[in-house]
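In line with agreed milestones, the collection of sequences with tokenised folds has grown. A representative record is reproduced below.
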Amino acid sequence: MKIMDCTLRDGANVVGNGFSPELTKMMIEGLLRSNIRIIEMGNAKGLGATEKGSPAPISDVAYLDLIHPYLGQAEIGMFLNAKRFEADNVAMAADKGISFLRLGADAGDGASTYEKAAVIKQHGIKVRYSLMKAYLLTPEELAEEAAGLEAHGVDEVTIMDSAGTMHPADAGAYVEALKARVKIPVGFHCHSNLGLSAANALSGAAAGMIAIRYWVKPYLLLWLLMLVWDAGTVWPALKVRGSEPTPPQPVYFAIPPRYRPRWAPAHRRPLPCRMTKYAG
């Protein structure tokens, strides 16, 4: 199981269109210490969004300069909405050494992105692809679209539950259909509007997906890293005061007041979290 952390991109929608340089560096370094090796970051709306009316705290160039010291330690890339595709932005990202671009388009629009994927590949950049609003197509239809993308050089496809309305049975059916049709890696991008993202991820894993995309609000990042405890490549070297990794056990910490959910009482309420094996 591979895990891509996109807190620094998708999670930035909570605060605007991006995180500050200081927070970006802090979270990248924390993710690297936690053995996360695929990281998506930058403008929440993707590469080129600043010029299209969605400015982040710093420019795409500044974000890419910021990650340069970390490029040898992980795959670090950006999202690229196909509607905001500009060849010059792709060339700039390639010059800065970006590891991948995650090209995204609504399910059913895959054929319109073939040339854009080809441009990215020409620059030596890995093309990850998000099948946004995957539920617009049936599992079989989405699998056919994924096959077309594979034939045009896409390196990996992600089933994106954009509205967060899929159920575990849906997640499993979509993953099974794509796995039966393509040879490239199949991932799943969960949203938890119905509180089912973890269940959907587990269902997708059981169906054979090999990559999971997630983002969390910054105060929950530690919680999620604990949730995926001992996932093989995620956090195998956690030590407590120099000891060997502790076995799965309940962990409690308090949510800072400014980030406390509306359902939390006024007093400090610990958020119960359990370390548990997520996927072997």
Notes: Strands lie at 2-5, 38-40, 75-81, 100-106, 126-132, 156-160, 186-189, 211-214, 250-254, 270-274.
